Amino acid sequence: MNTMHEEVELEKSVRRLREKFHGFIDIDKAVLLMRRYMNDHQMVAKWVALMANADRDLDDEERNTLKNDPVVKNVVMKLKADERQQEEHPTKTSGSSAASSSAKPKAKKKTNEDKHLVELGEHLQALPLTMENKRMFDQAQENQIPAITHQFACQSCDREWWRRVPQRKRVSRCRRCKTKYDPVPPDKMWGIAEFHCPNCTRSFMGFGRMDGRSPCYGCRSAIFPTRILPPKRRAMMPGVRRKNQHSCLAEDCFNRMEPHVPGTECVHPRSRQKNRKPRVVYPSPAHISSGSTVNTCLSQGSLLESINELILDDIEEESDEESDISS
């Protein structure tokens, strides 16, 4: 197996395992378990949630693995560096398919005899019995990482993107400047919007912003959008698509509807370009780390960034630099 791909697969499984347990699992132990069980984070998460026994430290064999296995060493160093940098600079971020199973290390121990699984089960069992912790165990056993899709925007790089992020850690990083951001506030989102007119009951899509009205293509009533649609959601919208030229009440709209609202901005790309305005309408607030979340799941400081991919193949990013609906 290519060393780079091997490290990527190991890092992916370690991040997934740690995210399922909200970062309570130490990096060293998570890496050893993923190396031992061929990156099977689903199986390990289920066993950890069920195990409970006496605490034990690393034995000589495991210390030797941490010290001498180059793939394990690189991933441990990478993940620990991420956490150190996040602790030292809380407001800033640190700047392919797996091969066949024959190329992977073989599991040396049965799960019910593995002291690390037993140890982690005991450690996690000692956590306070809260609804949040109970939910964490239930979701780990079901192999779930609850996620939600958010819009993010970097003002300095003038770019906007959508990211599916864990519900407990709604943070994304700009790929250009590496700054971490919180989502665009719900009432400030913009882009391709879904509208439902209460007057003529017409439903349609068009460029809009949550805090601005646009005219209904049927009765011309000025209405607010219902929601802003992520790129994939737009393609799934049912019904026949009709082309209608964009029009809104914004003062600088290229096809302004009267009476317009003074001081308002149009979000349509044609208006933004015509008025020489940036693409970002409302920037994301910079993320301020509370220290309660760790680099576990998202592509923050990921090995994959050098090849322009994401650390998790099931958490996708879609940028406005890709094709958008416009008319």
Automatic annotation (TrEMBL):
Domain of life: Eukaryota
InterPro entries, per database record: SHFL
Keywords per UniProt: Cytoplasm, Nucleus, RNA-binding
This protein's GO CC annotations: nucleus; P-body
Region Disordered: start-end pairs: 82-113
Alphabetized Pfam families for the sequence: UPF0515 (PF15135)
Compartmental location: Cytoplasm, P-body; Nucleus
GO biological process per UniProt: innate immune response; viral translational frameshifting
Molecular function terms from GO: ribosome binding; sequence-specific mRNA binding
Compositional bias of kind Basic and acidic residues: 82-91
Composition skew (Low complexity), residue ranges: 92-104
UniProt family annotation: Belongs to the SHFL family.
Protein name: UPF0515 protein C19orf66-like protein
Native organism taxonomy: Eukaryota, Metazoa, Chordata, Craniata, Vertebrata
